[in-house]
Amino acid sequence: MNKVFRFQWGAFLLFLFFAGLFFILLTRIVTIQATGEAEGQELAVRAAEKYDHEERLAAERGRILDRNGEVLAEDTLAYRAIAVVSEAATQNPENPQHVINPEETAAVLADHLGSSEDKILKRIEEGIESERYQVEFGAAGRDLSHTEMLAIDEENLPGIIFVRDLKRLYPNGVFASHLIGFAQKEETENGEAVVRGKMGLEAIYDEVLTGQDGKMEFKTDTWGYLLPGNDAEVTPPIDGSDIRLTIDKTIQNFLEDAMTRVEEEYSPKRMMAVVADPKTGEVLAMSQRPSFNPNTLEGLSENWMNEIIQLTIEPGSPMKMFTLAAAIEEDKWDPNAYYQSGSYSLLSNTIRDHNRVGWGQITFLEGFQRSSNVSMAYLLEKIGPETFMEYIDAFGFGEKTGIDLPKEADGVILNDYPMDRLALTFGQGSTVTPVQLIQGASAFANGGVMMKPYVIDRIANPDTGEVSLEHGPERGNQPVTALTAEKVMGILESTVTSEKGTAQRFALEDYRVAGKTGTAQVPDPEGGYQYGHENYLFSFLGFAPADNPQLLVYVAVQQPDLEVTEYGSQPVSEIFKSVTDNSLKYLNVEPEQINEATPVTLDDYSGKPAADIADALQKQRVEPVMIGQPGTVTEQLPASGTSIFAGELVFLKTTGEIAIPDFTGWSKRQLLQYQQLSGLAMTLEGDGFAAEQSVPAGTPVMGNTKIKIKLTQPEAVYKQQAAEGDGTEPSIPAGEDTAAESAAE
């Protein structure tokens, strides 16, 4: 039976449809195989992104160190909060590893991160919508301390994890802040956080301090587990170079503490101070006020200048030492010659001494000791204006010192008119920088040779050992001979020791001091100069010890709040004396005047009445300390036969209840002796001398009494400052070189 072929259109169309699909699919597969691309994206790259992972290994930023290797700035451990928003991170629903409730998570994190709940929630939701694996919270989620991290971790928020990070730390707080500066994290275009120096050495040497990040490359499966047989390839990071400064942390702390005290007491508009080694040019300390804390930026104002090198000032009378040096070098100085003090006229201008009327006919030596402007005018006549300006150039004024810091100011030395040169002899009209004064004055402590100031000792990479910069003492000009320098130092010392000297307030008990005070006019923003009891820049440029200077110190205090009876040199001297005296003792510079004392040999006081022994010791100027109630002595320290000197302590143990004494000023040895006899449970913190105690003096000792005693370095102990203001101060007018010095009548 013959079958009739019947064409099936439905089947044919279905065949064509599937054949077309197969052809399209085949073409697509062949195209992908041939090009390795799909939808404009390289599949190999997408696969690598999925399975190949790279983790950045952050390099540590270089440290900034003081001259002894003490850390001034360094990276420290911090944490970064991350929210995992991908559901793929959770393998077990009962133990979620991603954010389950964005609203609740945002509300809890807002309490810890200091950011708004809305901002945090927006970050999380954007991450979920864009199918990201994890998100961060910007600056709010970075630089978390260990304590802050633990507080968030205790909230048990699903999906919130922490990554170890580095944070810039300035362990000393307000400490040479305008010199060291600060560094902060900033976000790059790709969302990475990098540390960048923003100010001071952190900004100047940002490239040197910034290390080179490393990386770790590895392969994982779909779930993020490391594939077997695929070892991670690690490129180690190279940390940034360390910068070692000439700054001495201890001396800088002396300076910071003194300036803080004066700032709190006198509220000046500005303070500047620098301590240098005149023999080498090394800057040992520098600071200014107002200042700020680089950790928190508290106190940071619009003034980012390092004023020691960038601010130009009319220096006032410290310039007189350079005028004096020029006169001596030119053989125009006769200390015993007389001149008429009070006023001096040049063309139509008249300058006056700071008391307006002078002291009659006085010698040039007395004129310098009294800081007479008129004496400078007569010296200028003897030297000659042109020759005088040559010495100003030789001392480096009007040009940069070349200190290893950028943006150093030149200052402006006026030399257009006769009055410009006359005013310059006593430090008005023209401007200089504090570091120029330091460099110029170093000549007098160094045989007539100036030493170039510097603050960076060495820059070296701790990983590679590469030294990129190394400084040492560098000699500058020699504007005067060694003999002239010696004579200048002697005359500068007389301003401190003479009963007519303006610098008597700056004398130290144990060291000879030489220097020159200053009371410079402060320019008025509207023109001219400001007037009034306080409206001056009070300063002192001094050396110690005078016969062999180890320190050169410049201190300037502008417009402090003074009582009517107070002088502008008081806040300046408080800084200078505290810093200089403590620094010399810290440097083990032997005091120049040691009072001879007769030693006291102790007897055996056992069994004798304690009250009688105490009276006898006090008559020998020895301080007895009773441990117990009045009665007979049972034990003593130091032992019998020991020789001690006036002012030292002798411990007398008796029976009965013990009362806690005032330990202030006691040395660690004395504290240990007291502990040995009393049996008191004492904890000593620090080194030096007792400054604080946890139990007040006079408290009876109970069976379980424990006491903590904090010890500090000598600054808290040396009490020669207590004698200040006792009526021995010289009678110095409020403005030692006032507006009348350079103002034309």
UniProtKB/TrEMBL annotation:
UniProt keyword Membrane, yes or no: yes
Coarse class of the protein's main subcellular location: membrane
Cellular-component GO terms for this entry: plasma membrane
Molecular functions (GO terms): penicillin binding
SMART domains: PASTA
Residue span, PASTA domain: 654-713
Protein name as annotated: Penicillin-binding protein
Annotated localization: Membrane
Keyword annotations from UniProtKB, A to Z: Membrane
Superkingdom classification of source: Bacteria
Region spans: Disordered: 718-745
One GO-annotated biological process of the protein: cell wall organization
Family, as annotated: Belongs to the transpeptidase family.
InterPro entries tied to this protein: Beta-lactam/transpept (IPR050515), Beta-lactam/transpept-like (IPR012338), PASTA_dom (IPR005543), PBP_dimer (IPR005311), PBP_dimer_sf (IPR036138), PCN-bd_Tpept (IPR001460)
Keyword check for Membrane: yes
